[in-house]
Structures are given as C-alpha cells and as structure tokens.
Amino acid sequence: MVEARAAGERLDRWLAARHGAPTRSQIAADIRAGRVTVNGRVGKAGERLRGGATVVVEPRSMEAHRGTEPEAIEISVLYEDDEVVAVDKAAGMVVHPAVGNRSGTLVHALLHRFPRSRWPGDPERAGIVHRLDRDTSGVILVARSLVAHEALSRQFRARTIEKEYHAIVFGRVLRAGAIDAPIGRHPSDRKRMSVAARRSRVAVTAYEPIETFREMTLLRVLPHTGRTHQIRVHLAASGWPILADPIYGRSLRPTTSRGPIGGRASSALMPRLALHAARIAFDHPATGRRMQVRAPRPPDFEAALRVLRRESKG
Question: Where do the structural domains in the chain lie, given as residue ranges?
C-alpha cells in the first residue's frame, strides 16, 4: 500500500525505492509487460500514485517466459543454491535470445533445467547478470531471485567481482603487466570495438604468462572493467591477438620456421576463439560469504595446448 507521504510519486520510482527492489530496467520490463497493477488496473511507469493505493507486482513464473520455451539442452552446472547458479557455458552457445538466435541459448537450457524457478529480470534474460561471447567458454553467473540479481549487479558495477580468463595469444609474453586503454566503438566498423574510438570508456586489463611456447603464450587475464570485447581488443592492440579470433586477429596464424604450427592454420589448431572464463569470485547475495567458482579448460583448449607444447619441444 502506498504511504500517505509518498502521494504524488511516480509508480516506477516508488517501486524502485522498495526494500529488495529489482533494478530499474527490471521494473520497467514488469510494467511494460502488465505485471504491475494499481488498485486492480494495469499501471503505467509515469503515473502519479495516491496515498493508500494498492500496488501489486505479479510474481514471475514460467508463464512470464512465453515466447522463450524451455529446451532440453545439456549444461554443466558448477554450483547452485536458491539464490545463484554458476554454469560452465560451452563454446558456441549464445547466452540469451536475440535476433538470429531465438533458440538453443543458455536461457532456454536454464528454463528446462530449473522448471520451477521464478527468474528475475527481462523474460528473455532469466536471471542473466553478465555475458560471455558465443565462442568464449567458461563460468557464468545467473541470479535466481530479484534480491540476488540486484546484489550481483551492484557488485559488477562496483567492480568487486573478480574474473579470471585463460587465453592463447600470438607472441611470447614474458612478464606480467596491465593494459590501461579506453575502449569504444570502432570509428568505421560499428561491429567492432577499438582503443582508437572517438568516444570511449575506461578499460583496464591485467595479464600474466602461465606458459610460453615457441611463438605463442598461454595468458592468465584479469579484466578490472567489463567493456564489450575488452580482453580481445586490449590483447590485439598490444600485439598479442587471441588465437582464432575472427574479428581482431583474422589475418594471423601461428607459424614456426617450418611453416604453420603442426601444418595447420588457426582454425585447425583451435576451432574457435581461444578464450576461456576460468574463475569468478563474488560475495554471495544472501550470506555475504566470498565465493569462488572455477571452470576447467575444455578439451579443445587443452588439445591446442598439447600441440603447442609438442611444437615447442620440437
């Protein structure tokens, strides 16, 4: 019920001020979908409330996901409880539905794996709080409640969530360092990001070598910010493009003095982008306890490393 002192407030702002409220984008999505009523009628975001009015938010359920139907897609769950799920996303899987990818996504798999969950957020996002590129494998967090979604979103905004990636890159990287270069849209190709953008945002990426080969390196990468394609852009701009990156390293291939490594081009050595989300650390939304979830490097990644080790010894 709307308090007398809140009379005249906008519906969306009143909802946002409630304890445990979801994000403003989630509130807007609920209002647009007709899940918020004021005195029994569908509410509008900008309507002014009267003292004593009854506001009801319809709980999200599977029905709220109509248009995004569950699909029996196998996923590897690394951790789960009532608030959070951590999934080891396979390379090639899109995180959520979008133009050109209306099925086969992680969201479709989650709806099937957890049929009784009332996922927060947009109906097609099912609790997704961050993303991985289609060809990036590894751990991704999913919120199972509005409180968890907001708590994790806050941690991402505050940059207190730690993410560790492993990447196979061209070039021998012999020491640890950090790349501090703002990122924005490429000035001539809107599908790409660049450190030479006209308008850019702060981006910082730390790195350290795990293993060096004849002409390539396995890197541990720790992004301190979360810009689109950040790791790929920063490493490529530093002269170390990621193996098999079709956007930021498409003309390169691993070579030795005898020609392409193992007689194969990048796409044969590694069938997809050689980037893996290996670890994520966060504060649990309910307990506050620091959590850490790891995802082992997948078989295709390890196979590429074995080839590089053989070639280096040879």
Answer: 4-58, 63-158, 162-313
Q: What is the DSSP string of 159-195?
A: T-SEEEEEEEEES---S-EEEE--BEE-SS-TTSEET
pLDDT for the residue numbered 57:
83
| Helix (H), strand (E) counts: the chain | 7, 16
First to last CA, the chain: 74
Q: Is the dihedral of CA 187, 188, 191, 192 positive or negative?
A: negative
CATH of domain 4-58: 3.10.290.10
Residue with tokens 């939304």: 285
- Could you say which of 30, 133, 135, 245 is catalytic? 133
245: annotated active-site residue: no
pLDDT digits (tens, 9 = 90+) for 238-266: 999 999 999 998 544 454 444 444 334 56
User: Does the pTM of the predicted model rise above 0.90?
Assistant: no
Which two structure tokens, joined as six digits, stand for 186?
Answer: 């490429």
Q: How far apart are CA 201 and CA 195, in angstroms?
A: 9
Is residue 254 within 8 A of residue 215, CB to CB? The reply is yes
Fold agreement (4-58, 63-158): no
Domain 63-158 CATH class label: alpha beta
Q: Which CATH class is domain 162-313?
A: alpha beta
Residue pLDDT, tens place only, 177-230? 999 999 998 988 878 999 998 889 999 999 999 999 999 999 999 999 999 999
